Amino acid sequence: MRPRTDIRQDQYVLAIDQGTTSSRAIIFDRTGRPVSTGQREHHQYFPRPGWVEHDAVEIWGNVREVVAQALAAAGLNQDSIAAIGITNQRETTLVWDRRTGEPIHRAIVWQDTRTQDICRRLARIGGTDRYQRRTGLPLSTYFAGPKATWLLENVPDAKRAAEAGHLLVGTMDSWLLWNMTGGTEGGVHATDVTNASRTMLMDLRTLEWDPSICEQMGIPLSMLPEIRSSSEVYGHGRRRGLLAGVPIAGMLGDQHAATFGQACFDPGDVKNTYGTGCFLLLNTGTAPVFSDHGLVTTVAYQIDGHEPRYALEGSVAMAGSLVQWLRDELQMFASTAELQQLASEVDDNGGAYIVPAFSGLFAPYWRPDARGAIVGLTRYVQRGHLARAALEATAYQTRDVIDAMRAEASLDLKELRVDGGMVANDTLMQFQADILDLPVVRPQVTETTALGAAYAAGIAVGYWHGEQDVRKNWQEAARWQPAMPEQERERLFRVWHKAVTRTLDWVDPDTAGS
Ligand SMILES: Nc1ncnc2c1ncn2[C@@H]1O[C@H](COP(=O)(O)OP(=O)(O)O)[C@@H](O)[C@H]1O
Ligand SMILES: O=P(O)(O)OC[C@H](O)CO
Questions:
Q1: ipTM > 0.90?
Q2: Closest ligand 1 atom to the C-alpha of 324?
Q3: Phi/psi of residue 397, each to 5°?
Q4: Parent domain of 19
Q5: How many CB atoms lie within 10 A of CB 137?
Q6: Disulfide check for 285: which of 87, 267, 271, 322 has CB 3.0–4.6 Å away?
Q7: pLDDT digits (tens, 9 = 90+) for 362-406
Q8: Ligand 2 atom with minimal separation from the 198 CA
Q9: Is residue 482 a part of any domain in this protein?
Q10: Is there an atom of ligand 1 within 6 Å of 77 CB?
């Protein structure tokens, strides 16, 4: 293996974006422009209501394939790649055997709710906020630690093998890093501070595993990856791989990578990624801010040798997936282009509101007992109104989170930087600016997740020179200014809240699979 120190002007940086539905590899040039892409979806397993699993071996295979696709499409080989960044769906957890490299069970995905009983058990002492001031997170099925507990308690022989030191636990970043650096032949077992901050096992201030929480969750410290910064050389591509010898030098959870790629480096900078769900991160500076308004506290990113930056995060479970549901299950329109056409044919929502609480409400409500509803129906309401209501639902949910952020951190929010699939929708973006009373700004490169991981890797090896290069490369492509009169804005938002109250306390404990 040839450790690389030489960085040439004509090189590129490769980012691997291991997402919930697919894995992508994107090669970026020095200006932060994508040069080529490879992408492949993986299977979603739903073995029981509320359970969601991924096959980590399939994902590792897909990652190798998409890297090959991206290199081939650009006509490049490993000599042209200065560094590799990894970014990933967060919280999705797996345990594997360090002797064979085989997972002991399929990975438990972030959306999976099977750890409800474990969370309830842990909350018996101190309630759901038991670990909040140490880890920034409420006890919720969303986070990684209890998923590891479930695997150790439910997979035969796992506990014993873990105690004997045979098993490793990690999120997708660690799984890919370990395999990419050689797997059973000396793979590096590490994670970064952002991914670790989603486990509920890391102390947010010391950035180390909290031994007492690990013990309470029954997770031996010997299984856990080493916690490193988000931008440093963790290891090099394995000898037999396509990227042999290339430094793997950036690792961040996908929402943190998007924050980095959007150059949200100053306190008060905030971004929203509109995909399946919505994820808002607000940079709060060098000290963690703990929330009383339903937001979680997380590490935004850390460059090696620098203080970490913290963020408040609000996650919305369903945004683009509501659009998908209306298209695929209700067949209300055939494409997102048709949705846009329908929504533009009406002036407003006609009094109809859709609250997409299909799997409860995440931030800032955290109500697992809520279920989706369409309210305000009259014979006046037509398809266009419902199409519009679907888009508006995303904007209102975003406002709920921004309001919590405004209440929490006394920071002046100047604009909302946006990315993700839904930002192609101009009707939504204008309504978002209107309902927030805040400018909404879309950058030229909207692949900000992969780009953020590429920047973290490139900075570590000296390909880019710190945050200033990221700021320089970030370019505005579109801006929407708020134009709605205040009275109208607040009336719409007040009725939205009324609609939300209609969805709460819906789950009937006696109804299986509800
Ligand atoms: N023009 C559009 N209007 C509304 N929603 C859209 C539009 N284009 C894409 N979407 C939605 O955006 C989502 C895809 O965004 P993407 O960022 O690729 O998601 P993810 O990374 O979470 O899989 C889908 O749920 C899709 O329904
Ligand atoms: O893979 P995505 O883009 O759906 O993001 C998933 C989030 O990281 C979950 O917390």
A1: yes
A2: 27
A3: -65, -40
A4: 12-255
A5: 26
A6: 267
A7: 889 988 888 999 999 999 999 999 999 999 999 999 999 999 999
A8: 10
A9: no
A10: no
